[in-house]
Design brief:
By secondary structure, this protein is an alpha/beta fold. It contains ten helices and 16 strands. α1 (23-38) packs parallel to α6, α4 (103-113) crosses α6 (151-176) and α7 crosses α9 (226-237). The protein is globular, with a radius of gyration of 21 Å. 42% of the residues are buried.
Length: 328
């Protein structure tokens, strides 16, 4: 049996924040544990740990990084952590509206709840990644492990993370009737050749390499010349090369700017460590330019910058990265 494991968020998107944790870190931690336990029973494929499946679908490169063809996947499981108001608690699993049965998911959520979480059950919602997989004929589910902003939930998670991973594996093994006699298989990870500057610049525009000095450090560590990448970014965006005396998007210039990224996250503060806002938290005007209702403003939207801080711009709805704004 071929099983695909995906970890939510990452690649510049921290996901939910709470109690000193980032969702993107926790999803990878738990996915690592699940893969290590599950590969005794099935052939486990891992969507690249460093990538963000949601972003890749949005940018049309999901298939490029998928380690196995859609028609070869028997089941796909995406791991997330929940967040709300600090009081909500428990574990829940989502399947798409097209999914017929949910005995596997019911077994998983029951197993996790037995560890000490409130059981919020199996629910239906067409979240982008699992919907994309289901549209390709792949049975899939999205786990909201527990609430990252609930102190008790996170205490239980930290004390029982191995048990939670085993609970997930047990649900899959029991319901699919896997016997555990398969030879352990290491998770398959694609090893693409080093990308061109053109490809890296495209990823920078889509937010995969972070912002400011963090982006410079990551590009340098990966063997790329940040200046060359930035020049290519400017070329792709049609921007005029800037000299040291010219203002950039990270200057203190206020006024009207245009969004040049396909989806620009709005955050509660000036940095990637701040939580992304939801659609309902945006101003009425910003909601008109969030077609997917995911808290991201669409390309071409004009916004008014009131303040700059740490390379982020404050607009009426919150804070956005100045790397993806162009002065108009």
């Amino acid at each position: 049996m071929n099983i695909l494991i995906l970890n939510g968020h990452g690649a510049g998107d921290s996901g939910a924040l709470g109690n000193g944790y980032k969702e993107a870190d926790l999803t990878r931690e738990l996915a690592d544990l699940v893969v290590s336990k599950l590969n005794t029973y099935a052939k486990v494929y891992r969507y690249p740990r460093e990538r963000n499946a949601y972003k890749d679908i949005k940018n049309g490169v999901f298939t490029k990084y998928l380690p196995i063809a859609f028609d070869k996947i028997d089941y796909a499981f995406e791991i997330h952590f929940n967040a709300f108001d600090g009081n909500a608690k428990g574990t829940e699993i989502y399947i798409t509206k097209l999914e017929k049965g949910y005995s596997v998911e019911q077994a998983i959520v029951n197993n996790i709840a037995s560890i000490g979480f409130s059981n919020r059950g199996v629910k239906r919602s067409d979240f982008l990644v699992i919907k994309t997989l289901k549209n390709k004929g792949v049975s899939s589910a999205l786990l909201e492990t527990c609430f990252i902003d609930n102190a008790n939930d996170m205490k239980t998670y930290q004390e029982h993370k191995n048990d939670i991973a085993q609970a997930i594996v047990n649900g899959i093994v029991e319901r699919f009737g896997l016997n555990g006699t398969s030879k352990p298989v290491e998770p398959t990870l694609p090893q693409p050749a080093k990308k061109t500057v053109v490809e890296i610049a495209r990823e920078v525009i889509n937010g995969a390499w972070g912002n400011g000095q963090d982006r410079t450090n990551r590009l340098t560590n990966a063997g790329y010349n940040p200046s060359e990448v930035q020049a290519e970014v400017n070329r792709q965006l049609g921007a005029k090369p800037t000299s040291p005396s010219e203002p950039t998007n990270n200057s203190k210039t206020l006024g009207t700017y245009e969004v040049i990224a396909s989806d620009l996250s709005v955050r509660t503060g000036p940095g990637e460590n701040y939580r992304r806002k939801t659609y309902n938290e945006l101003t009425a005007d910003a909601k008109k330019h969030d077609y997917d209702k995911d808290g991201c403003i669409n390309k071409g939207t004009r916004v008014t910058v009131k303040e700059w801080k740490n390379g982020f711009a404050r607009i009426p709805s919150g804070w956005v990265s100045g790397d993806y704004l162009k002065k108009v």
